[in-house]
Amino acid sequence: MKQKIEEQAESLLLNNYEKYYRLAYSYAKNESDALDIVQESAYKVLKDIKKLKDQSLLSTWIYRIVINTSIDFLRKRNNETVSIYDLEIPHEDQYQDDDPKEMIAFLNEEERTIVILKFFEDLKLEEIADALNMNVNTVKTRLYRALKKIRVTLETEHV
Hints:
The protein is mainly alpha-helical. It has helices spanning 2-15, 17-28, 31-48, 58-78, 100-104, 109-120, 125-132, 136-157. It is globular, with a radius of gyration of 16 Å.
């Protein structure tokens, strides 16, 4: 049993490496630091896999570790409190004239994290709730609030 969960974790880490890298990059804002974060996260996952009580949460548990490792890395580097307000999202132009980074820059920390995990990392609401240790209804509420803020901002800018 123990061997199987370790193999699943290794498989997830390898198969989703680019997603974890993008998430780490959104915090670190440079390639070298993002690579360090993903490597440290993978180490933590494999070291602490025994602590995971519910194996069905493995995927979201790994996301949580990448997020926490990213924040810890930035705190150590900057020796200050870091929030998700400083995210940079390294994605292709999915919106022709609107930069996705600018579209979510004004959201609060939780709203921005939820939007990134939902729309940039394609996680389900349940997975986001698990990764952020929130109730699914809370995630839904904050997601809809964030989307409304984005819509209002876009409508105001394009009038």
